[in-house]
């Protein structure tokens, strides 16, 4: 039995696009510091995510936008935080009746890992074309099984059984056995 691979946490916030605003006079955007942000699984309704970690790895249930001054985070900036394990997108609610989509900022690393995985699979496919597969004689049927369509392109097949296989190809090998 194989063990499940734990899902990793992904980073959110801290990018040039992650700010909290409100509409000021004349609908001019005004930065809002100290905005309380909750994270959700859906645009409406859904499950509230409270399993968050701040930039230091401390557990938090909500994110506060920067307040400037001595806080070290400029006014309105949504600081970096980690979402729940396996979550790559979440919906941010700032209490104004509308949620915004926030996508993980470390997805570039995932794309790199997918590329490596694709290269590994391609290399394995090449190795499989040089792998020998065996077809065992079925005494009850009195015959070898037909060559499966998926194996038709293989370079070599092993035929295991007492009679010489009639459908073996030139490069195939026969291993005679006593049944």
What does this structure look like?
This protein is of the alpha+beta class and 179 residues long. It has 2 domains: 11-108, Immunoglobulin-like (Sandwich), CATH 2.60.40; 129-175, no CATH class. 12% of the residues lie in helices and 25% in strands. The chain is built from 1 helix and 14 strands, in the order βββββββββββαβββ. It has one helix at 107-128, and strands spanning 11-12, 21-23, 29-31, 36-40, 48-49, 52-54, 59-60, 63-64, 81-82, 89-93, 99-103, 133-136, 157-160, 173-175. The strands form 4 sheets. Strands 4, 5, 8, 10 and 11 form a 5-stranded antiparallel β-sheet that branches. It has a 4-stranded antiparallel β-sheet with strand order 1-9-6-7, with no helix packed on it. The longest helix is centred in the middle third of the chain and has 22 residues, at 107-128. The protein starts with 10 loop residues before the first strand and ends with a strand.
What structural class should be given to the helix and strand makeup?
alpha+beta
Flag low-confidence runs: none
So how many helices? 1
CATH architecture of the largest domain: Sandwich
CATH topology of the largest domain: Immunoglobulin-like
Structural domain count: 2
Classify the beta-strand content into a percent band: 25-35%
Taking all Cα atoms into account, the compactness measure Rg is 30 Å
DSSP summary, beta strand count: 14
Helix content: 10-25%
Order of helices and strands: EEEEEEEEEEEHEEE
State the separation between the terminal residues, measured CA to CA. Answer: 34 Å
What's the story with the biggest beta sheet? Answer: 5 strands, antiparallel
**In one word, what is the shape?**
rod-shaped
The averaged pLDDT comes out at 89
CATH class of the largest domain: Mainly Beta
């Amino acid at each position: 039995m194989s063990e499940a691979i734990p899902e990793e946490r992904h980073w959110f916030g801290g990018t040039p696009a992650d700010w909290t605003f409100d509409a000021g006079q004349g609908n001019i955007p005004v930065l809002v510091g100290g905005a309380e942000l909750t994270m959700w699984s859906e645009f409406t309704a859904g499950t509230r995510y409270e399993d968050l970690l701040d930039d230091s790895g401390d557990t938090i249930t909500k994110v506060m936008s920067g307040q400037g001054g001595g806080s070290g985070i400029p006014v309105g900036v949504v600081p970096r935080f980690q979402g729940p394990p396996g979550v790559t997108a979440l919906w941010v609610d700032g209490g104004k009746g509308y949620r915004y989509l926030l996508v993980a900022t470390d997805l570039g690393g995932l794309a790199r890992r997918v590329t490596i995985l694709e290269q590994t699979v391609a290399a394995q496919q090449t190795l499989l074309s040089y792998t020998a597969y065996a077809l065992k004689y079925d005494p009850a049927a009195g015959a070898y099984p037909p060559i499966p369509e998926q194996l038709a392109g293989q370079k070599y097949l092993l035929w295991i059984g007492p009679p010489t296989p009639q459908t073996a190809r030139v490069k195939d090998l026969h291993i005679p056995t006593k049944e």
